[in-house]
């Protein structure tokens, strides 16, 4: 019976000296760390949204400025030569004046696609067909058409050509 009392006494002492205070302190610290992490994420999102808003405002201001310059150039060109020009070239009016337009940007993607497609099609057609000349011509035409269509699509994506509505 004495042994049972000793075991009960020791077990009660062991359970009475638990680490609830330490566990509660660790739990509070974890909650505080979580709150700091959440606050940091919210702050970074808020900063990102401010930065994005600033970028959008800058882009809108630049676009408005470009539109104003383009409109002013069109008005000035319409007054001086009384003709309208397509982008990338200059035209002469019946009055003999010329209207300079925007600087050329090099080859369009449609032109590049046409040349590359024609060359690749000609080589492929010559290799496939028994009559080399006929195969090169047919392959070149087919390749040029395909290359043009792909390049034209890229021009539309980049904004060089206005998409169909």
Q: How many domains in all? A: 2
**Major beta sheet, specifics?**
2 strands, antiparallel
Write the H/E string, N to C: HHEEHH
N-to-C terminal Cα separation, in Å? 97 Å
Task: Report strand order across the widest sheet.
Answer: 1-2
Overall pLDDT level: 79
Q: What is the subunit arrangement here?
A: single chain
Beta fraction of the residues?
under 5%
The total strand number stands at 2
The 3D shape can be described as: elongated
Computed CA radius of gyration, to the nearest angstrom? 38 Å
Written overview of the protein:
The chain is mainly α. Helices cover 75% and strands 2% of the residues. Strands 1-2 form a two-stranded antiparallel ribbon. The relative contact order is 0.06.
């Amino acid at each position: 019976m004495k042994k049972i009392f000793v075991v009960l006494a020791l077990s009660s002492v062991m359970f009475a000296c638990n680490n609830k205070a330490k566990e509660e302190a660790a739990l509070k610290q974890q909650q505080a760390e979580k709150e700091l992490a959440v606050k940091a994420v919210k702050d970074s999102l808020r900063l990102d949204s401010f930065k994005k808003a600033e970028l959008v405002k800058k882009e809108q201001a630049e676009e408005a400025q470009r539109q104003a310059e383009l409109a002013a150039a069109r008005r000035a060109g319409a007054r001086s030569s009384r003709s309208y020009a397509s982008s990338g070239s200059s035209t002469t009016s019946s009055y003999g004046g010329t209207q300079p337009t925007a600087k050329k940007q090099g080859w369009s993607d449609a032109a590049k696609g046409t040349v590359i497609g024609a060359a690749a099609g000609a080589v492929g057609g010559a290799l496939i067909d028994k009559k080399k000349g006929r195969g090169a011509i047919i392959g070149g035409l087919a390749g040029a058409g395909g290359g043009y269509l792909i390049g034209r699509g890229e021009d539309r994506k980049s904004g060089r050509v206005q998409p169909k509505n």
